[in-house]
Specification:
Length: 377
């Protein structure tokens, strides 16, 4: 295994995620209990869960689960789906299957750290930054200019983590076309799809637009079920899926059987769950709007287009790193400072922090945050 750098986000969370009193930077929506999820099951799936043999499962994933996943796409079949232990395993193995020394990849920033560091451990990588001065717009001309004859992968993430950006559908379709005409695999991280503030802005899924594109998704983010640890890649290139399966033999081999049944239940009930989660975000956003409006000298706030995280600017003289450190140490309020999203590929803003808007009852955290800010004045 190629040596990778420390995973800054996970290192930070290892210190603070379960010790800070107020987790205001969560990247997932408020989760459900096992009982609440099972209440959404039909009789067949409830019986399957209660009578489940706890043996090994298929490396590609439970066939019934893959059928349900395929039904969430317009052009995919169950044979176009492979399941993983969360999105991180899928991303890691996909990059190791698609890239080798001598290849080249293009990665859009800012992003989830592994989207950058895993390709960098394998080959040359060029970054293309979303423009913070143009509402995090993606410059397709910059993507085009970054491509080389040996480019094998272009990696994107919309709705974006941490910015919440959703680009126009026409731009996304053009990006797919650009990759297809050059024989490049578009790797599309779609884990927040379904949480758009305006559902009409939901992008097409890459795997529906191209038989070379890979769509990454997971139960963790939009569905709010990270404890299941079930992710998947959908791609209509079945030879590539076969290579991914062989790579998975060296990691998890197969998924948790109970989690696969529970994921099946969640995906069958996805309309209900996503409506619940969008409603939760819609309820929370005015609370965050009101909070940031109280401190216009300290924050430049913009609600996300989609997903459940935003990336406001901190305007204070002490800088965002000291600000976030003192906030968690003194008030127990956890945010993620810009250093977590530092890129070695592109310049990235140093005055931002990630805040989560998808957890239930954020009032206590915002009150602690507000009290601490006022005490500093």
């Amino acid at each position: 295994m190629t040596r990778l750098p420390d995973f800054r986000l996970e290192t930070h969370f290892s210190r603070w995620e379960f010790t800070a009193r107020h987790h205001l930077t969560a990247s997932d929506v408020q989760t459900m209990t096992l009982g609440e999820l099972l209440a959404l099951a039909d009789d067949e799936d409830r019986a399957a869960f209660e009578n489940l043999p706890l043996g090994y499962t298929e490396t590609f994933g439970d066939p019934a689960l893959r059928e349900v996943i395929a039904a969430t796409y317009e052009r995919a079949e169950a044979a176009d789906v492979i399941c993983f232990a969360g999105a991180e395993e899928a991303l890691y193995l996909a990059m190791n299957v698609l890239l080798d020394a001598g290849d080249h990849a293009v990665v859009v920033t800012p992003n989830y750290q592994a989207a950058e560091t895993v390709p960098l451990a394998l080959c040359e990588v060029t970054g293309v930054a979303l423009d913070p001065d143009r509402d995090w717009a993606l410059d397709l001309d910059a993507v085009r200019a970054a491509l080389r004859p040996n480019t094998r992968v272009v990696s994107v993430n919309f709705p974006n983590n941490p910015t919440g950006k959703v680009i126009p559908a026409a731009e996304f379709t053009e990006l797919v076309r650009l990759c297809d005409e050059r024989g490049i695999h578009l790797f599309s991280d779609e884990v927040y799809r379904g949480l758009e503030r305006d559902p009409a802005r939901a992008l097409p899924q890459a795997a529906d637009l191209s038989d070379r594109a890979l769509s990454l998704n997971v139960t963790s983010k939009a569905l709010g079920l990270p404890g299941l640890r079930i992710g998947w890649i959908t791609c209509r290139d079945r030879e590539l899926l076969s290579r991914l399966e062989r790579a998975k033999h060296y990691t998890t081999i197969c998924n948790s059987a109970p989690s696969e049944v529970l994921a099946r239940i969640a995906l069958k009930a996805r309309t209900t769950i996503l409506e619940r989660n969008r409603s939760l975000i819609a309820r929370n956003l005015p609370l965050f709007e009101e909070f940031f409006a109280e401190f216009p000298d300290l924050f430049d706030w913009r609600a996300p287009d989609g997903g459940c995280v935003a990336y406001p600017r901190y305007l204070g003289p002490d800088g965002v790193e000291e600000f976030c450190t003192r906030l968690v140490e003194e008030a127990g309020v956890l945010l993620l400072p810009a250093s977590i999203y530092h890129s070695d590929l592109t310049p990235t803003p140093t005055d931002r922090f990630r805040i989560g808007v998808g957890r239930a009852e954020p009032e206590a955290g915002l009150t602690a945050f507000r009290t601490w800010l006022k005490a500093r004045r």
